[in-house]
Amino acid sequence: MNIIEQIIAQKAGRKKVKAGDELSVPVDLVLAHDVTGPMAIEQFNKIGAARVYDKDKVAFVIDHNIPSSSVDSRRQHNILRDFHRQTGVKLYQRGEGVIHQVAAEEGLYKKGDIVVGADSHTCTAGAFGAIAIPVGATELAAVMALGTIDMEVPHAFLIKVEGTLRPGVYAKDLILYIIGKFGAHGFTDKAVIFSGDAIVNMSFEEKMTIANMAIEAGAMIGYVDQGEPIGAIAGTCVIQASDLEPQIACPYSPDNVKLVKEVEGTPITQVVIGSCTNGRISDLEIAAGVLKDKSISDAVTMIVIPASKRIAEQMEQKNLTKIFRDAGAIIANPGCGPCFGAHQGLLSAEDTAVSTTNRNFPGRMGHKEAKVYLASPRVAAESAIAGSIVDPKNVTSWEG
Amino acid sequence: MEKIKGRVFFLGDNIDTDQILPGYAMSVPLNELKKYALKGSQIPDFAEKVSPGDVIIGGKNFGCGSSREQAPVALKDSGVGAVVAATFAMIFRKNSVNIGLPAISSGCTERMKEEIDEGDYVEVDLESGTLLHLESGRTYPLNKFSEPASATLKAGGLIDRVRNILRERGELIDRRETQY
Ligand code: SF4
Question: Largest CB tally within 10 Å, which of B80, B88, B147, B157?
């Protein structure tokens, strides 16, 4: 059995499972946010369960529209707040940050756990060795009632990344490269295992960036090697980290990946640094390193959104807040920001943005014609200064 | 489980959820989703043509793309009795079964396309795992549902299946009157 099968077998109390088997598995953590949570609660009420299976294993995070961006979004908050009061489930409603970041900081993701989330980037938990499954509202409601999920053991694919990334090339470039190589449907319904010394030696922050975007290649599960034997995997691909150059996903799909130098010079009007992909302190340090004592271009509106309240605190302690403000950036409160097109920096048809987020489908960040390029914080920050897309290796003032 | 009887609509490979329910229809009230069923597909007027019990026969990778649960809801509410396809994207298949819409894979969809005309009547028997072409009397094998999926369908969807499980455990209360 490979590592994914081993974890599932152990959780399900079976000696052996194989890809394709469908079985019922106990769930260690159930997650939803202010956009998916209310519908799941509605379904839960239709079920009529006497209680949530384990209130300490269910957590809601208000992160998508916070502070509320409309009357409807406030209503959604209130549904979660009421449910929290009535059932005692965890609720993060104080601007703690983006669901996947908050869950990580609170220690909710544990190695070998089964995590079920009503959000497609639930795969972020794979950075910590959890098996994380994205579900719809009805399924989430059923899990809240029963504490188990029926799942199919997925076929696995192993990506081994060997060697070291060059200066100026980051985890974001690596995952963009992988998505570009395999395409948006490359791993549909599969579990992708990220391994090799380049991955194993990464910080948890970088591992989260990698696992976060597994869904952009269609994966059902993204799992980062935790150091134990992976077992035999039929499909494998080896990537040499040192071959990689800075990557960028062009409009209108995360798999439309090019080398940054191929689109260098493209004029831009907005830069967003944040999200569950790249809103962590190491990302902000990289961006601040570029922006220190510099000003962003007149043509650009720049928004910095720390992925959590804790990161915002670190940002202040390390004096990054001042660097960003002095450079001309707007610092928004921890949360999803404009990532999924609800508020805090939406684009109109004529805008072009460089963003460190994970999706650039038409309309994802505002108008359906607005162009969004997905890149690393380094590319984003350097492009903000230039007012056009910059290939970092052409700028020598900052050495990763 | 009752047999499903209706006319056939054919679709090709890689029918994604944008074809089944375009993104712009995601914000319409739930009970209006059916009007947008297959709006983005090669049968944009499907919602007007479909009758209760009709069967969609698709190709490979049916329901790929975003995991929106509203996509199978639109098909079910429009009257579709079952979706048969060579293969399904897992999330779509699960979402379908969870809301009580049988999504069944079969190795014979190519043959069905050759031997059955669009609009012909067929009967899907989930119990025996067959699709019967009424005009010719030919039957085509369908893959069996896994045990959990079949239990969910028998109950009429995941909500009712979970209700049954909780009822047996004595853990069911009816708090549908409670407004959250
Ligand atoms: S930051 Fe973006 S991708 Fe991450 S959870 Fe929020 S909306 Fe989704």
Answer: B80
- pLDDT tens, position by position, A98-154: 999 999 999 999 999 999 999 989 999 999 999 999 998 899 999 999 999 999 999
Assess A167–B contact: CB distance below 8 Å, yes or no: no
Concatenated DSSP letters for A355-386?
Answer: ESSS---TTTTBSTT-EEEE--HHHHHHHHHH
Q: Is A340 close to ligand 1, i.e. is its CB under 6 Å away?
A: yes
CATH number for the domain spanning B128: value is: 3.20.19.10
Judged by a CB distance cut-off of 8 A, whether residue A136 touches chain B is yes
Instruction: Give the range of the structural domain holding residue B63, as residue numbers without chain letter.
Output: 4-143
Put simply, whether A72 touches B (Cβ < 8 Å) is: no
Residue whose token pair is 């499907």: B46
Average pLDDT of span B7-25: 89
> Range(s) for CATH 3.30.499.10 in chain A?
3-14+21-151, 248-391
A259 touches B: beta carbon within 8 Å: no
B10: how many CB neighbours lie within 10 A of its CB?
18
User: A99 CB under 6 A from ligand 1?
Assistant: yes
Provide CB contacts within 8 A for A247, sequence distance 6+.
Answer: A172, A173, A174, A176, A177, A180, A257, A258, A259, A260, A375
Taking contacts as CB-CB distances below 8 angstroms, the residues of chain A near B171 are: 49-51
Per residue, what are the HEC states of A312-363?
HHHHHHCCHHHHHHHHCCEECCCCCCCCCCCCCCCECCCCEEEECCCCCCCC
**Closest-lying ligand 1 atom to the alpha carbon of residue A339:** 2
For the Cβ of A213 lying below 6 angstroms from any atom of ligand 1, the answer is no
Rounded (10°) CA dihedral A391, A354, A99, A161: -30
Q: What pLDDT shows up at residue B24?
A: 74
Fold assignment, A248-391: Aconitase; domain 3 (3.30.499)
B106: distance to nearest CA of chain A, Å? 16
Number of structural domains found in chain B: 1
Q: Which of B99, B166, B176 sits opposite A138 (nearest CB)?
A: B99
pLDDT tens-digit readout, A222-246: 999 999 999 999 899 999 999 999 9
Nearest to B178 among A45, A50, A51 (CB): A45
The chain A residue lying nearest B146, using CA atoms, is: A22
- To the nearest whole Å, the CA of B73 is away from the closest chain A CA by 11
> In which band, very low, low, confident or very high, does the pLDDT at B22 lie, cut at 50, 70 and 90?
confident
For residue B99, what is the nearest residue in chain A, using CA coordinates? A138
Tokens in use for A119? 């959000």
User: Is residue A371 in contact with ligand 1, taking CB distance under 6 Å?
Assistant: no
Question: Is residue A307's pLDDT more than 70?
Answer: yes
pTM of the model: 0.90
Just give the CATH number of A3-14+21-151: 3.30.499.10
